[in-house]
Structure formats: C-alpha cells, structure tokens
Amino acid sequence: MAVYKRTYKAYRGPLTPAWSRFTVLSRYGLKNLFDSRPFTAFTVLCFVPFMGWLIATYVVHSTTAQLAFGIRLGAGVVGNMWFLGFLVTEAWMGFILAAWGGPGMITKDFANHSVQLYLSRPLSRVEYLFGKASVLFVLLSCISWVPGLILFFVQAGLEGHGWIWDNLWLAGAIFLSCLIGIAMVSLLSMAVAVWVKWRIAATALMFAVFFLFPALGAVISLILRTRWGHLLNFPVMIMIIWGHLFRITPARPDVTQPGFFIVPVWAAWASALSVCAICFWLLHRKLKAREVERS
C-alpha cells in the first residue's frame, strides 16, 4: 500500500499472551509431523505394547482368562520389574520416534535460515527451544509415563486391599524415569539437529550416539581393563538410573549384574547429566538471532 495515502492502520486485534506464544511452534510442529502417514502409523504402533500389558494385567487377575489361555499366573507377577519392562519397551520405540521426527523440526529452520525470523519476533531462544521440545515431550509422554500410570492404577483397582498405598513409590518411579529419558533424548535430538542441519544425517548421528558410543566404551573398558568405559554407554546408564528408581538390586551384592550397576549409580547420573549439559552448551553456541555468512 502506498505510504503517501496514509490509510494504513496498526493491528488492534487480540494479542497472544506472552507466556503461551511458544505453543504456536508446538501446534505447527505436531501438525507437520502427523502430515506424514508413516510417522502416524508408527505412532499408533507405539501403543501396541500398552495394550498388550493392559490385557496381561487383566489376565493375571482373572482365573477364567487364565483357564481359557491354559496358563497359571499369580498376582505377585505385577511388580517393579513388570512396570520397568513396559517402560524399557516403550523407551526404545520412543527413541525411534524422536530420532525420526525430532531433528526434522529444527533442521528445516536452520537450512532455510528461518530461525532468525522466529527470533526477530517477540520470542526468545528459550521459548523457541521450549516450543520445539514440547512437541517431543507430548509425543513421548503419550507412549511412556501416561500409559504407565494408567497401568499402575488399573493394577491398583484390580488388586485392591491397599495395594496402591504400599506401592505408591512406583508411580513416582514411572514418572521420574520417563522424565529423565524424555529430557535426554529431546536435548540430544535438538543439539544434533542445530549442528548437522540435515535431517537424515541428524537421525543417523543420534543412532551413532546410542549404538556406536557403547561399542567405543566397551573397547576402552577392554583395553584398559576397567569398567569406566561403560560411561559412554548411555542406554545402560539410563537403565542403571531406572533400576535404582525401581529399587532393583543384584541377586548378590558382590556380583555386578549385566545391565544394572556396571558402574555406581552416582556415575550413571553424572554421565546422563553431562550429556544434557553438553547438549545445552551446543544449543547455546549455535542458536542465535543472527548468522554471519562467510564467502
């Protein structure tokens, strides 16, 4: 519109509240992910273990169902290992989900130089990251701690006799364990994406961190005859933390149990927190409101 006519006016409509502006990124992020049919199909597939555990929980408490299937199970089967097994299954499926959809939400912004456009609006770097991370948090929550707590309350209702009060710590373990896993995977996917700027390469690098680093750690442990090389095995470090939260102990205190307690719990926490801190540092270095192009 020509400026000399002076007929333009400022926008006087409703403004989005400042505290919820990051939800715009979340909304469009979810929409773009579920525009992909394969991604939508795999997300639905992630609920299959939940249905299996839910049916199994009912069968454990139903004598008729056990007779129909020709099995015999006691109510004591449902315990800390029962819920931990469910979370481990969903954790691997959630990792694939995050590695598939997570990097793509950010690599496009950096490849097309649209990050500068986002940050030129009344949107801070923290809000930008929170908007992107909230997409993964919602997705991974829907397949991890939300169904995990549903299983917990279903088990409590079927068991009765004050079971929920005696095992209320399990609900906290389910939520905290999933929160740790979601935070680590989300930060890693975003940190990889801002540096690689190519979705396929970012996804491959995430798999490398979770599968090649454990091999490197095993080689270090073998050569140096130490167990500290396993600190690079991030899936095992998460399992050690989860095992501690679910009150799992080795059969013999003097014997190291595979998958649990290869290193002390504090060392596993230090490894996981170090990964999160490095991801924060990488994001801080790369996520800026301006970019210098060098020819």
Essential attributes:
globular; 295 residues; mainly alpha; 70% helix
| Rg on CA atoms, Å | 23 Å
Silhouette: globular
- Using DSSP, what is the number of strands? 0
- Quickly count the helices: 13
Helicity range of the residues?
55-70%
Distance between the termini: 36 Å
Summarize the helix and strand pattern as letters.
HHHHHHHHHHHHH
What do these coordinates show?
This protein has about 300 residues and is mostly helical. About 70% of the residues lie in helices and about 0% in strands. The protein has 13 helices and no strands. The protein has helices at about 20-35, 35-45, 50-60, 65-70, 80-110, 115-120, 125-145, 145-160, 165, 170-195, 200-225, 235-245, 265-285. Helix 5 packs parallel to helix 10 (about 170-195), helix 7 (about 125-145) crosses helix 10 and helix 10 (about 170-195) packs parallel to helix 13.
